[in-house]
Every structure is written in C-alpha cells, then in structure tokens.
C-alpha cells in the first residue's frame, strides 16, 4: 500500500500484473530505448518491431486513405458501433476473407475488434475458465502469453522446430494436452520465425487438435504476406475437421496498424463452439468491450474492395528484397546463424553463438550493448520465448536495413574474441 509522509493510502502496485504482464515486446523495446546513446548523431534503426508504416516504401494505398476520408466527411459514422461491428463492415470482411476459400463465410460469424490485439484480449478472457489451459508456441508472439497469465489461464508451451522449417512439434501437442486444454494457437505466416505452414502441415495440426477435442486459434494477421515458395493457406480450410477461431486485421497487409481494425471469425460448421456455449460467452465479453472506431468500419467496404492488386504486389516485392538482403547479410556475421530463410511475415529468428564473443553474457546483454554502441534496435530472443536468439524485422526501408546490418556486423566483429 502507498505511503506519503504520515498518510497511508489503500492502493498501490499490483504485483500479479507486474509479474505476468511485464515481459512483452513493448517492455523490451522500452528497455532497449533506455540504452540508446543520445550523443550518437546517427538515426536509430528500428529492427525490433513490425511496423513499417512510417517508411515511404510501405505507405498505404491512396484508395484506403480516400475511403477513410470519405467515411469521416459523410458524417454517417459518428455514432457508437453495435456489438460485433456494423453490418456493412461485417459483410465486407466476410466477403474479403471468403475470396480464396472453398466456401463462403457468413457475416454473422465475423466479430470486429480494435486490431487483432483486441481479438486476442477478448478471446483469451473468454477461454480463461478456472483450471483451463492453453497450448502456445515457443517462440511466440508474446501478447498471448501476457494475456493468458493476466487472465490466469495456464500456459503450456509447445516447440516450433527450427530444423523442420519451424513446423509445430505435433508429438509435443499430444503430450501436453489434457481434458482441461481449451485451445491451441497457430500463427501463420509466423511471427517471430518468418515461416509459412504448408497445407499438409495445417491439416495435420487440425487433425491432432480434433483428436484432442481442442479449438484451433488461427492468428492470420500476416495473411497473404508471403514471398517464398509456399502459398498462404488459411486454417479456415480445415474447419470441417476442427472448430477454428480465425484472427486477423488490416494492420499488416495495408501497413496501417494505427487504424486499429481487426476481426475474430468463428468457423464452426458443425456448431461445436456454439453448442459448447463458447460463442454465447464470446458475445457477452464483446458486449463489455470497446469497439473499433465507427468511421474505420464505415470505410472498410472501400478499403477492402478498392485497394488494387498492384499495391499488394509491390509491397511483397519490397518485403522480399528486404528479406533476401537480410538473409544474405546475416550469413556474413559469424556470431549469428539463421536456420531457415524467411518466406512470410516480417521477421526472422537467428541463433546467437555466445562462445565466439567476449564481454557479452546473453541475448539481452547483446541487444542492450548493440543499442548503446550502434543505435540499432533488435529484439532479444527471450522476449519471444527463446533465450540467446534474436528476432530481427526486415520490414524497413531497404537502405536503412543495409545500414543496420553493417552496424550489426561491426558490433559483432568488435566483440568477437581475439585470437591469441
Ligand atoms: C502474430 C500477431 N498477432 C497479433 C498482432 C496484433 O495485431 P494488431 O496490430 O492488429 O493489433 C501482431 C502484431 O504485431 C502479431 O504479430
């Protein structure tokens, strides 16, 4: 409890919150920012988080900007939203998500959220019944871990296997699950590993989850952001096998994370989620949650409908060039190795070889000293569940990326053990 002079106050820090929620990406980015040398005149190179929207090569499509302006000008979208979103926006999202699917998603199954982040909050809160557990990947997008801890939903971690192109360790899933396991999270294309799951692998995941009686949460916020050999296949294709909760947003594909527009879609052709009561509980949690901004909902039919294919093609070309450059430059740096060439999302994971370095104790020490000496921000692997690895985003302006990789190499050379 707080004390201020002689006066005692009945409130103070919440230790449970600090323990469960402090180890996320933002926490580490703030920590690294505190290590920057303010006297270094060079620009800070942000390879720690996936938001390329400030860079000219990743500017969003003018058609999307016009759609938002028009929605605001029309004065038709100044009111509160309805629960789950405005019908016109739910319909537009259902149509967009059905474009490359073998069936049509119903607007009734689409629930709109303030970015994918809020879909995670709502879903995890709904699943967190006393005694339940959830299977989360390692490495991961740690917001799921923070949210689950915060809601006292037990976390059980399964590995993604670097030697198998970061595929899910299906044996581990079977070993970890029990009759209290509510759900299994699959992030595809993957943050933080940069891989894309094949159709066959997704089917195996769906079959395993079905056998175990658990829901699949398919985080597809990087939907269609693929530039390798594998096409993007949605987990929605396997909802006949297992109930799927699909999460997504316009944040990444349109490069507008600040617009805060996402969705959560219940894919439940056999009414398993509905009959279990989960869909009803979800509606209650949505009723007491905030909504995505109404004018963005008003703009959504045009954002999704009028953005030309050229926009996506050109962004993917840029990302591919950045990803290839990143992969090649990493090969020249002796203390890190990349086990798998990225083929989607905006990230890659690289393994740190501490044995060749002097005066670096671990991944966090590496990243703090890197921020201080080179004004370069890279995320320590521990923030996504893998100690002594690093997560690098390549989604920045190409020239800046090249500069960042030169700085990384210089840093690595300076800290490499000298031959006697
Ligand atoms: C895997 C994953 N899921 C969800 C989110 C949150 O998305 P949004 O920015 O739409 O809230 C992110 C953001 O980086 C992410 O990487």
Automatic annotation (TrEMBL):
Transmembrane helix found in the keyword field: no
GO cellular component: cytosol
A molecular-function term among this protein's GO annotations: pyridoxal phosphate binding
Residue span, Aminotransferase class I/classII large domain: 43-403
Signal peptide range in chain numbering: none
Cofactors required: pyridoxal 5'-phosphate
Entry keyword Ribonucleoprotein: no
Record key words, sorted: Pyridoxal phosphate
Gene3D superfamilies: Aspartate Aminotransferase, domain 1, Type I PLP-dependent aspartate aminotransferase-like (Major domain)
GO biological process: L-tyrosine catabolic process
Pfam families associated with the record: Aminotran_1_2
InterPro entries registered for this protein in UniProt: Aminotransferase_I/II_large (IPR004839), PyrdxlP-dep_Trfase (IPR015424), PyrdxlP-dep_Trfase_major (IPR015421), PyrdxlP-dep_Trfase_small (IPR015422), TyrNic_aminoTrfase (IPR005958)
Modified residues (N6-(pyridoxal phosphate)lysine): 252
PANTHER family tied to this protein: GENOME ASSEMBLY, CHROMOSOME: A09 (PTHR45744:SF26), TYROSINE AMINOTRANSFERASE (PTHR45744)
Classification via NCBIfam families: tyr_nico_aTase
Family of the protein in this entry: Belongs to the class-I pyridoxal-phosphate-dependent aminotransferase family.
The protein's name: Aminotransferase class I/classII large domain-containing protein
Species: Arabis alpina
